[in-house]
Design brief:
Distance between the termini of chain A: 45 Å
Largest sheet of chain A: 2 strands, antiparallel
Helix content of chain A: 40-55%
Strand content of chain A: under 5%
Number of helices of chain B: 7
Number of helices of chain A: 13
Oligomer: heterodimer
Distance between the termini of chain B: 56 Å
Number of strands of chain A: 4
Radius of gyration of chain B: 20 Å
Strand content of chain B: 15-25%
Order of helices and strands of chain B: EEEEEEEEEEEHHHHHHH
Structural class of chain B: alpha+beta
Number of strands of chain B: 11
Structural class of chain A: mainly alpha
Helix content of chain B: 25-40%
């Protein structure tokens, strides 16, 4: 059943936050329709009740293609903090931890806008990434294991790559398997000891290194004039392990 | 001793001086109507051939927009809409230059600010972000880990400073807040001087900044000796306070008070 999208006001956010801190009972969905805890939002957006999304990518696709279809002002939507809290609570079943039973909520910043950690607000970032990068967003938020994994953290926390349209198809080609899961080791961190040892290959070519490589290449190339295949061919040898399985 | 590494420039790419650009921004009363245009660019002074093409990446926070502006001798003067860029984050422009239909760059210029956004304090190494701080005027958030790409962020009370540029242009903010911001960053540097040499650390660009100030880089002593550490931090803050832009703000504040 379609439901009009609303915005949680400060009282509503307080109640939602209280439940996140102590999730003893069911999510407080009654506040989604209570005039005392909600405000109207500009634009007649509707969401379908009861939908379950297997991944944050699926949620992003739905919001982009079926909910915010004619939204012209992307930044105004991004800034509608109360609305994203409302959407988070509305679809909370798809946004909880999947490794506990009964399922528990993640930290507050995954549902409520938090300064400096705004990128972790899953529903908003999922919508925004799909709107910006389309299918390439899958590598960051396509995992069915968790609504917010290490890949999402690595790919969305760096401002210089978040909106970089050249970066995402390349990361997608390097680290995503044919079945849509992330390749093992793609998020591994290069240890301090490895950094000091030139023979140690640990962590090389992973997603933590790719933004740095891009930063170097952006000094030399206009990557926005190049397609993903051209950029893949440019990458240094440390990416061979990942590139070998792209068919590129 | 850690090896000093720097982002390399094997193709001899040319960095164009910022003074050759005049960028304007007009918000028409709302960031939702915000446009920019490249008012002038002196390609001869920059040493570029007239047929070299220029493109621009406008970025603010996690939002960015890309524009191809054409040949430097006849570039599209705009205006170009940037209404989708974050209105509460510092707005910067990167200009890149290449030969027609080629991707290899011949020159670039980074960190260009619009003429209308005065002030040198909100340099690209620090973000300023209006936030609801419930009675606290400002606070500094430093990146948690070693992750590169992150920046120190000065959160400012939205009721006092509705936008980053309002804070950056405020002389009281400059003289009271920014030296303390520098002090806290210097303290973090003193706790992990290796970060200055690690291109993957957020501290890495601060090495160049400190050198630009004329401050010495922290010696090995500062990590283990509290006295040496505090001395070094104070020396950095003193150098920072001597920057021309800070002295100008100090003069402005003293002038305002003197008029009373």
């Amino acid at each position: 059943m379609p439901v009009q999208v609303k915005s949680l006001n400060s009282k509503g956010i307080e109640k939602f936050e209280g439940w996140i801190r102590s999730p003893d009972g069911a999510p407080p969905k009654c506040i989604l329709r209570d005039p005392a805890t909600t405000d109207d939002v500009e634009g007649a957006y509707e969401v379908e009740e009861g939908r379950i999304f297997r991944s944050s990518y699926e949620l992003g696709i739905y919001l982009h293609k079926e909910v915010f279809v004619n939204a012209e002002d992307r930044y105004a939507l991004l800034s509608s903090h109360g609305m994203w809290a409302w959407i988070s609570l509305f679809y909370i079943e798809s946004l909880m931890r999947r490794d506990t039973y009964p399922a528990k909520p993640l930290a507050r910043w995954h549902y409520i806008d938090t300064p400096r950690l705004g990128y972790r607000l899953i529903a908003r970032t999922a919508w925004d990434l799909v709107a910006l990068h389309g299918e390439s967003a899958r590598v960051a938020i396509g995992s069915p294991r968790s609504p917010w994994g290490e890949m999402a953290e690595q790919m969305t926390s760096r401002q210089e790559i978040y909106a970089n349209k050249s970066f995402w198809p390349v990361a997608n080609a390097l680290y995503l398997t044919a079945d849509g899961s992330v390749k093992r080791g793609a998020t591994s961190q290069r240890s301090k000891a490895a950094k000091r040892d030139p023979r140690n290959r640990s962590g090389l070519g992973g997603v933590r290194r790719l933004p740095f490589t891009f930063k170097q290449f952006e000094r030399t190339y206009n990557l926005r004039r190049m397609d993903g295949k051209e950029i893949l061919e440019l990458l240094p040898r440390e990416y061979d392990r990942w590139r070998a399985s792209t068919g590129g | 001793m850690g090896q000093m590494t720097r982002t390399t420039n094997p193709t001899g790419l040319k960095e164009i001086d910022r003074k050759n650009f005049v960028v304007r921004v007009n918000e028409n009363g709302s960031t939702r109507a915000r446009v920019f245009w490249l008012e002038s660019f002196d390609y001869r002074e920059a040493g570029l051939e007239p047929h070299v093409e220029v493109a621009c990446i406008a970025h603010a926070g996690t939002t960015e927009a890309y524009f191809e502006l054409g040949a430097v001798s006849n570039f599209a003067q705009g205006p170009h809409s940037i209404h989708e860029l974050a209105g509460d984050k510092p707005l910067r422009f990167r200009f890149i230059f290449s030969l027609p239909e080629q991707s290899l760059l011949v020159a670039y210029a980074d960190g260009i600010r619009a003429r209308d956004e005065a002030g040198e304090l909100a340099a690209s190494l620090v973000d300023i972000e209006p936030a609801d701080l419930d009675g606290i005027a400002w606070k500094l958030e430093l990146p948690d880990g070693d992750s590169g790409g992150e920046k120190p962020n000065v959160l400012v009370e939205r009721a006092l400073f509705p936008s980053a540029s309002v804070a950056a242009n405020n002389s009281w903010f400059a003289v009271l807040v920014m030296p303390e911001v520098m002090r806290q960053i210097a303290r973090r540097v003193s706790e992990n001087p290796d970060g200055l040499e690690d291109p993957e650390s957020w501290l890495y660009p601060w090495g160049e900044f400190l050198s630009g100030l004329g401050a010495e880089l922290p010696s090995v002593d500062v990590q283990d000796d509290d006295f040496a550490r505090n001395e070094w931090i104070e020396s950095v803050v003193r150098k920072f306070a001597q920057k021309a832009v800070l002295r100008t703000h100090m003069d402005a504040v003293m002038g305002t008070e003197g008029d009373k």
